[in-house]
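Predicting structure from sequence has reshaped protein science. With that in mind, we have picked out one protein's residues alongside their backbone shape tokens:
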Amino acid sequence: MNAMLPLAVEIAAFAVIYAIASIVTRPLRRRCRTEDVLALGAAGCLRHVVGHMSRALAVLVVTWAASELCGYLKLSGPLAPPEAHIDAWLVFWGLVLLIAFVEGAAAAACRALKRPFPIPDLLRSITRGVLVGAAFLAVLRYQLGINITPVLGASALVTAVVGFALQGVLGNLLAGMSLHIVRAVVPGDWVAIGDLEGEVIETNWRETRLRTIAGHQMVVPNSTVASATIHNMSRPTPLRRHTIPVGAS
């Protein structure tokens, strides 16, 4: 038997579990992003937190169910995942569940208090990714006993190569992070950026989208927005004073 076959089967099994959990929990995760927590009260807050935790929780439940089913059917052999790998998988998703709980609880509390989340969406996604990556490395090191020093070294090399190849993309990413942190423009603001003027309808990691007074949608790279002079006509108040010369005879 090919020595890599058991590992390939194990990875495929974990991928199927993740896919099932993602598909089952997609409606709940989508709903927690759009639901009005304040209008639903405590039930809405709880549903919002559960929505954030749903995928990780579903992975743990499906993994437990699959393990119980394999034990009941007495499915074992060289292709069965080792117990240590299953335990590491469960520990990893337990840590992801904890991260999701903290994020969901903080987001629900901010919505209930009618306050914006203190961390912008872009930086929030990056922070979540860093924490999940740290959890993965911690499981490799402390649960499986794998030396992660070569992994970190290879990651640094890959990061340097990718960073050099994607300078433009990273420029937009860093500019987007800066715009999100200082909140120079947010959706709903009416702004003039260079020769463009319109309402901000979306900001993401790469670009800022404007809708002009004629209804056209303009996509502006974040690096351009960050280096331009921004005239925000919605801050600090949308009220404006205009001087109109009137001739008299």
Q: What stands out?
A: The longest helix spans residues 37-73.
